[in-house]
Amino acid sequence: VADVKGGPDQGLDKLGQSLVITGWVRTLRVQSSVTFVEINDGSCLSNMQCVMDSGAEGYDQVESGSITTGASIWVQGVVVESQGSKQKVELKVNKIVLVGKSDPSFPIQKKRASREFLRTKAHLRPRTNTFGAVARVRNALAYATHKFFQENGFIWVASPIITASDCEGAGEQFCVTTLIPNSHETADSPVDAIPKVNNGLIDWSQDFFGKPAFLTVSGQLNAETYATALSDVYTFGPTFRAENSNTSRHLAEFWMIEPELAFADLNDDMACATAYLQSVIRYVLDNCKEDMEFFNTWIDKGIIDRLSDLANRDVVQITYTEAIDLLSRANKKFEFPVKWGCDLQSEHERYITEEAFGGCPDIKAFYMRQNDDGRTVAAMDMLVPKIGELIGGSQREERLEYLEARLDDLKLNKDAYWWYLDLRRYGSVPHAGFGLGFERLVQFATGMDNIRDAIPFPRTPASAEF
Ligand code: 4AD
Ligand code: MG
């Protein structure tokens, strides 16, 4: 359908062409002598209106009522000019084949279903306009991400999902455990197949073939190893956080994009983050026009103007201290009081991006490079309206003795980081990088207000179904 209707002539250049369309029935209107079937094939937001009468082969299936909303069909016909005002062209059908019937219980009927309801139907929600559009924009953002980094000389590196390191040091990791081979076939439930050790208690921290292993919270440490060999690299893959937060911005499984730049400092890092964000937003505005018009009309009025503005404006940079000053001077009562040294809460981020403007860091992870003042680190966050923190990044501590001291201060086990410390032993370089939460970017680009609607199958404390 996108091939036909997606061009500048909205299909008028295809008049007279014979073609086959396969897709799912969105609506069906039976009139006395003709029937209109709207088919969507997911290639674009638009449906193809198919017009058929008793002259069409297979029309008896329409007459018998077998073709209903949700059914999959195959139609062959000719592109003709449409009499209707909603589209320039339609398909005059010669032959229709019902591929798969749709049971009358099909839950995604035309009337608008709530997002909450659709989350319980994650397997069928991509059949709606909203979730089809989100999926296409998400795809475009992924493509634009690879395009940006590839065109700028970055090399994509696969970071592992199973790891022994806790990059953020926040202890928000899921443990990996192994089922006893074969016992799951006889056990009543998979839980019974989990090895029982320590008097029946599971030693969760020792269960990856006898060693501790977790799902990664970030690919950064691995990216650093490749950056200190290949120069500029990036990762793009799933990451996991066992934080029990039920918010519209947190998932237990989310995708992260983590570039790492060698021979670079915090300013290079911020310049890269800005250029990256502007480039992918521009890509979506240029290449997803129909879907973006849909979001602009139905989901978030004015989003196109706001994104265009962001794609072209200078990003405002302020220091952490300036952010704290700004918040302290704000004529506003915050739930979490503001003082120098505190981590910014989302209400603070909201104030800065929506009422004041944009940029300030999370509290120091062990790998962040210490500034000369001895009390701050070279870190940055990029905040955007409605979402808050979209990007977190820093210059990394490349000096061995500083890093060792920092690990000691935080009582982290230096032995576990032996390979990370090696990078500082053999040809260390100043380097910096950032992480961008891909679902937050999808939210930002589409205006969807809940992160659970920015990923096909959300994993949250409430649900990991589907
Ligand atoms: O700020 P974070 O925790 O930074 C890191 O993980 C660094 N290692 C990144 C780096 O420098 N390479 O996470 C980075 C971003 C956040 O800004 C946010 O957009 C996203 O990841 N994020 C989440 N997105 C969805 N659900 C969650 N639970 C998230 N936690 C972080
Ligand atoms: Mg952060």
UniProtKB/TrEMBL annotation:
The keyword Protein biosynthesis applies. One of its GO terms (cellular component) is mitochondrion. Its EC number is 6.1.1.22. Residues 136-456 form the Aminoacyl-transfer RNA synthetases class-II family profile domain. GO terms for molecular function: asparagine-tRNA ligase activity; ATP binding; nucleic acid binding. The keyword Nucleotide-binding applies. It is an enzyme of class 6 (ligase). GO terms for biological process: asparaginyl-tRNA aminoacylation. Keywords: Aminoacyl-tRNA synthetase, ATP-binding, Ligase, Nucleotide-binding, Protein biosynthesis. It comes from the Eukaryota. It catalyses: tRNA(Asn) + L-asparagine + ATP = L-asparaginyl-tRNA(Asn) + AMP + diphosphate + H(+). Belongs to the class-II aminoacyl-tRNA synthetase family. This is asparagine--tRNA ligase. The chain holds residues 246 to 711 of 711 of the full protein.
